[in-house]
Design brief:
Blueprint: H1 4-7, H2 17-25, H3 40-52, H4 56-61, H5 65-70, H6 75-88, E1 104-105, E2 110-117, E3 120-137, E4 143-144, E5 147-150, E6 157-162, E7 165-173, E8 196-212
Length: about 210
């Protein structure tokens, strides 16, 4: 993994008494705020919250699919690499205290944020990602959560006026195949509707790049 791309959030040097106090106190252990990827600002706050609290899984989930690929990351390598990242970048959690400003939008699917991290200007690029997902419970009580990214909602969701009432909008969803999630004893039987907890398409904002502004 190329840790340097995230290490731009490292404070070099730390400045001020508060920063030194945070450094020596270590990661924040107070209760979490909600993980939220519904807006660019929420996604950025979630990333910084994860850094502040030393939560590598949430850091990983906060990154876009393309960014993970460029960093050569997956959920397993993230867990393995995280102790090394912390050892090489002591005080990384202090970056999590940065205030997140309002994002600048660059169309419906892209945004950027420029913020001050202890006197260093850092820019975050964010993208909106679409995916389909289904959440349901198998007969044995285990949870199935099949899903996959999609390039665009176009082709999967259509939006038209209701032919019977032009003051209403009608969304039509393409069929979702979840056969890969079935257990052997579930073969040839449909998933009971009462077992489905959620199904549909979702758009979430994720961090696509982190840059130190010079």
């Amino acid at each position: 993994m190329r840790a340097a791309s995230l290490a731009v959030l490292l404070l070099v040097p730390l400045s001020g008494c508060c920063s030194f106090a945070r450094f020596f106190c270590g990661p924040d252990r107070t209760p979490w705020i909600s993980v939220d990827y519904t807006t660019p600002e929420a996604a950025a706050r979630t990333l910084f919250e994860a850094l502040r609290r030393d939560e590598p899984e949430v850091v990983y989930l906060s990154l876009s699919n393309d960014y993970r690929s460029r960093l050569e990351l997956n959920s397993m390598t993230m867990q393995l690499a995280w102790p090394r990242i912390l050892a090489q970048n002591p005080g990384l959690h202090v970056a999590g205290y940065a205030n997140v400003p309002t994002a600048q939008r660059h169309g419906p699917d892209r945004a950027s944020l420029r913020l001050d991290v202890e006197g260093h200007a850092v820019e975050l690029q964010l993208v909106r990602q679409a995916k389909w997902e289904v959440r349901w419970r198998r007969a044995d009580g285990s949870l199935a959560e099949p899903g996959a990214p999609v390039q665009s909602l176009a082709g999967f969701v259509t939006s038209n006026l209701d032919p019977d009432d032009d003051t209403r909008n009608r969304l039509t969803f393409a069929p979702l195949s979840i056969d890969a999630a079935l257990q052997p004893d579930d073969s040839y039987r449909p998933v009971p509707l009462e077992a489905i907890e959620s199904a549909g398409f979702a758009c979430t904002w994720k961090v696509a790049d982190v840059r130190l502004v010079r």
